[in-house]
Structures
1.
Amino acid sequence: MGTTTLSQAYKNERDADVRERISLIRRVRIDKKEAASVAENELHRSRWWAYKWLKRYDNDDLEGLKNKHRSGRPPEVSKETSVIIRKELSENQSGWMAKEVMNLIYERTGIKYHEVHVYRLLHRWGFTPKVPRMRFVNTASKQDKSRFRKRQEG
């Protein structure tokens, strides 16, 4: 690949990490600099980082410099079970507390999730909190606040 092609790819690339990798390729392949010194002195990276990206470039050209998809850990709850739980949650109009959802998941699957992860699951499933947060109280005007304030009977 020529200098103009790498320069054009560098200009068009939006991802800063990929631009850094293209810069490494230009310095090593076009300017004939040593990979270890370019990585350590100019880019402040390890030599192994440079070797990894040079190898990926040699194998896959510019596509090799982009990040590959990482699947991550598979969910412990199967898709079928999560669909059933999600349907049950959506049928209840009164809403759910995270601890109730956590207990529901444990009853159905035997898998115990942390409360924070239950919030992540609810967000991923498209649920939003029904309880107003304090930040919403502070945005109301004084008239609105007085209208909703509890009135004493008597």
Note: Residues 16-30 form the longest helix (15 residues).
2.
Amino acid sequence: MMTGAEYRQSLNDGRETFFEGEPVANVAEHPILGITVDSAASGYDRFYKPDAGAVGEFMKVPSSAEELREQVELHETVDLLTHVTYASVMTLLTAADRIEESLPENAARIRAYVDEVQAKDLRITQCITDAKGDRSRRPSNQDDPDQFVRVVERRQDGIVIRGAKLHISAASMGHELMTIPTKAMKAGEEDYAVACMVPVNATGVKIINTTYAPRHEDTRDFPISGQQHTPEGFVIFDDVFVPTERVFLDGHAEFAGMFAHSLGLWERLGGLAAMVRSYDALTGFAQLIAEANGLEKTGHIREKISEMLINSTLVRSTLEAAVENCQVTADGVAFPDELYTNAGKYHGAANWSLMVRHLHDIGGGSILTAPGIADFENQSVGHLARKYMGTMQSVDGLYRAKLFHAIRDFTADAYGGWNAVTNIQAGGGLYAQRIVSRLHYDMTRAKRTALEVGGLSEFADEIL
């Protein structure tokens, strides 16, 4: 296993990564990107147990609902890169299981790769969303054929790929890029049916980074994003060679969707678990600021918080149902229930804006205008800011200001905007979750129930 220090050193491998128009020579030492490296390094140190081999507890493959719950709870406490690596490994194992019968050699490559990446204690990021070009057209009908990642050359020892993948969290901080189709492919789109593993430092890989991290010198007004943030990578594959042993799918259009769907399942489970915590935080912030404002007993405030806590409970219940109703494959691997995972992720994402609206309505304008922490330290106005930000003897003005800053950072600033968009888009967007929910919902049961309730059971055999 690697230590945090060894992980930092491993990033100096010649990778081409850029931030705000400039090349980054050393990701670990960069003043903004380096914060994410620090978080990932702490994850390495946390799970460093050399006597246990390279497979840490965070990589445990669950075989029951109890073990799946343990992994979900554990991964709510880990850094993002550690979590993404686990989700990637589970995606690969899920895909291997699903293509085993038709493509046994490919499934064997996947399992061999998983063994390798575990032995080397590497971190993986997920490259799935293509540039897409004209969204109304199929990949093979674009003006520019490179708008979806594709195979441009096949050699005896591997393939060459070209294209770009967008919204790749922490792409510059990992070692491997899990590159898979963004959607199901059809006949004639075989070149786009490609799944493979690409080292971040492979020749032709270029990563452009963006981040919501605050640029302020004093980050105390950003208690969340000032401590941890995740850069998003725009990953470009400029004619990148991939050896055969790292190619998991090439040309089999009928299996492209399986890789995308496998990732979607684990990404949505992770997103759902994160949303449980976020929903509780939103509800907690609403109650705290209502109490600090002296309005916790006001009727319309209580009603808004009641609606928030009900939504929080519903999101949590879908996570519990997804875990408790998991399916165990013939290989003994537990996968979360598809319906509850997708329905829960959909409900959480679709109602996020309502939760935030209630919080902002309860909190008031000081969410945006509360004085900064440095203002409270000013000898001329600090004591006055503290006096007038207070509301009663039991509510300190500095505490109330810090509470406003936390709410702003979480919901109404750069990180808040990132939250608003990613909660909808992560895991494939609302439409994708509706499709999968409909696929797994027992509509026959619903129709039969309707016939029974309506006194129409005599038509059941004919209708169903």
Note: The chain has a mean pLDDT of 93.
3.
Amino acid sequence: MLTSLIAGFASGETAFALRRAKRAGIAYVAAGIAGLCGLGFLVGAAYVWAARNWGEIEAAVGFGLGFLALAGIILAVHSIAARSRAREDKQRRSSELAALGMTAAAAIVPTLLRSKGGIGALLGPLVALVAYAIYRENSGPGNGDDVSGD
């Protein structure tokens, strides 16, 4: 638990999460305001209709429905943008973890070289690490390797 928290701070994930929360909050407040304006116009339209029975009601209903449509558009745009940002964040985290793994592997090489096994103890994991790095380099995004369906 503590290590994942520290890793989150180290990779800047906390700052990204705060930015996402701020964007979501702004979008929901804007949609809420637009929705409340729509409801206000609908209530005003109902009042005008009740007061005059027929007349300039079309304008008030039009404003009310317009603000409600605006709220729906704001929420739809935010939802689409949030999904896109989530995909980008997932790809960024993946590349950061790969870089972190490579750094950790490079940091452990001197220790393995000094161990009793020497080159023999290093050769197996090093070959596997190089093979994996070559595989990752050759299987870039967009070639059908992603099984998550995103």
Note: The chain has a mean pLDDT of 75.
4.
Amino acid sequence: MKIKKVITLLVITAFVLSSGIGYVYAGDKCTECGKNAKGNVGVRQEKLYKALNLTDEQKKMLEENKTKNTEQMKATFDQIKEKKNAMREELQKATLDMGKITQINNDLKKLESDMLDQRLQSILGVRHILSPEQFKKFSEKMKEHKGHQGRRGSSGGNRD
């Protein structure tokens, strides 16, 4: 029972923090900072790096972590997209092949599980790079940013 609670807590933490990691690597509009993130990711990122008082080595390691995880996530996402298309096609056929449908569904579950594992690895990578104090501050910044996103979403903000 205790193991289930720990695993659940880890998964929830991974999800919350992984959505925050996107803040550092964001590519959409940030209405709170008034900047188009696509053109000013470096500005916002440097602001965060400065707030965390990162060394050049930490910055480099975070960039490497981001690049590695972005590539892995994109590859997994592309595979999920392919499987969903395959499922859609199978479901449109006049005669259903339940064996094939079940296999595609199992593949999808595995890929989604892999994506959760990748998110956790990304978070653990950030955690390894930052000091405990920096990680605490980073987590606070991510919560703060998530709060901004929530207000933006409820006020009808545009994410384009």
Note: Strands lie at 29-30, 35-36.
